[in-house]
Amino acid sequence: MSTDQYQTLAGESFGEVREKASKFLAHAFPITDEAAFKARLAGIAKEYHSARHICYGWVLGTSGEKFRAFDAGEPAGSAGKPVLRQIQGAGLTYAAIVVVRYFGGTLLGKAGLAHAFADAAKAALASNTVVQRTVMATLEVLCGYAAVEEVKRQVKAMDGELVKAAYADLCVLRVHVPRSHAMQQIAKWTAQGITANLVAGE
Description:
Blueprint: E1 5-9, E2 13-19, E3 22-30, H1 34-47, E4 53-60, E5 66-70, H2 80-89, E6 95-102, H3 109-126, E7 130-134, E8 136-144, H4 148-157, E9 161-166, E10 170-178, H5 182-191, E11 195-198
Helix pairs in contact: 2-3
């Protein structure tokens, strides 16, 4: 897998585990950033408003370099970390799992809790689909009308896409290209008399 590519989840899935009358309800889903995770977490918390323990793990970054685990009042390391390990063990990033626990009246102990949280996370992942994505960079391309089709052809050749276009004497194209090709492509277009710039923050 190139540095442009990573594995994540196709959509949201659900898994449930019961352990000595305690229920562990897991939601696994893709996320784009922390804000997206917090928004979905708020929705889950609202749905399970009577639950005392809403634990989670998430991973971000192309190589999974940013991650977090949260125990939500469970014994330290017994909830968030086992959930996080399932995401990391599956080689996923830009992904999160939230596990809601309803206490059934019997204490499970730290090892029992860790096992149940991991199993719930595993069940949610098992009903999901892993997909491969490419990290894209956004470029703004300025060119004459005669060069438009050639720019489109080059973008398509590197599995990029045309996002937006404004056609006039000078055409402005907004394109997505694989991140590792961006600077090389800018240099190539410059040599062809085409102006291209990296769009920051996209």
